C-alpha cells in the first residue's frame, strides 16, 4: 500500500464466526500486499438480524437482515468493503454495490451435533432437534419425520450450549463454521450432500464493495478464488431465478471439475413430504447461463404453492 492510499476499513457483523471471516480477509490482504497490521481496520457493525433471536428470519424479513446495515455503511462510505457469509447474501444487491469475489471455499457440508449418539439413526422418535434453517429442517423431516424439529436461533456457541444442557437433543450447523471456530470436535457426524444439500453459498466468505470503486477492487482481487467465484455465480443465478428467500427450503451446490461445472439443486416442501431435484452440467465459461437454466428448469417442475409464480 502506498502512502497515498487511505487505510482500508473493513465492515463485519460482530458474531464470533463473522469476526473470524473478517480477520481471514484482513490477513489475506495483509499477506498479499505485504502490508503492516494497521493497513486494514476491522469495524464491527450490528445488524438487524443480530438483534432478532426470538423468531425465524423468514418471519422477520429474510436474508437481508444480516447485510442491510453493512451495505448502508458501504454506500455512506463509512467502510470500504464488507465481509459476509455468502449464504446470507440476497440475490439482489442494492444499487451501487457488487460482490468482488470470495475467499477459497471451505467444506460445504452440514454437521450434526448430538447430545447422545453419533448419527441421525441414533435419535429416538420424538427427539428434539433445533435449527433456524428451513432447508435443514425440511431435509431432516424428509429423512426423519418422527423427530420434533424446533426453532433454535443464536450464534454457534449458544446453539451448542442448548444441546449440551439438554434443552435440545441435537442441532445442525455448517461444518465450515464449526471448523473455523475450532469446534470441529463438537461434531457427531458430517452429513453428506447426497442427503443434505447445502444452502447456496455455504462455506464461502463474500467480499462486497462499491461498484466502480476500482482502487479497492484491485486490492481485493489477489485474495479471491476464481473457482469459488464460478461456483457461486451458478448457485446465485439459480437462486435468483427461483426468487429464493428464507421462506422456501432450497439447496444448491455447484462444483468446478476441470473445464466443467456440475450443479445440483433441490427444492422441498417445508415438512419434507415433497422433494424436487435437478442435476446439470456446463462449461465454466457459461456459468451464469447454467445457473439461470437450472433455475428455470426447477421452476417448471415445482408446484406453485412451493414457488409462487
TrEMBL record:
Cofactor binding comment, as recorded: Binds 1 dipyrromethane group covalently.
InterPro entries: HemC, Porphobilin_deaminase_N, Porphobilinogen_deaminase_C, Porphobilinogen_deaminase_C_sf
Origin: domain of life: Bacteria
GO terms, biological process: protoporphyrinogen IX biosynthetic process
S-(dipyrrolylmethanemethyl)cysteine modifications at: 246
Cofactor: dipyrromethane
Coiled coil: none
Reactions the enzyme catalyzes: 4 porphobilinogen + H2O = hydroxymethylbilane + 4 NH4(+)
Gene Ontology CC: cytoplasm
Keywords: Porphyrin biosynthesis, Transferase
UniProt record similarity statement: Belongs to the HMBS family.
Protein name in the entry: Porphobilinogen deaminase
Organism listed in the record: Ancylobacter polymorphus
Gene that encodes the chain: hemC
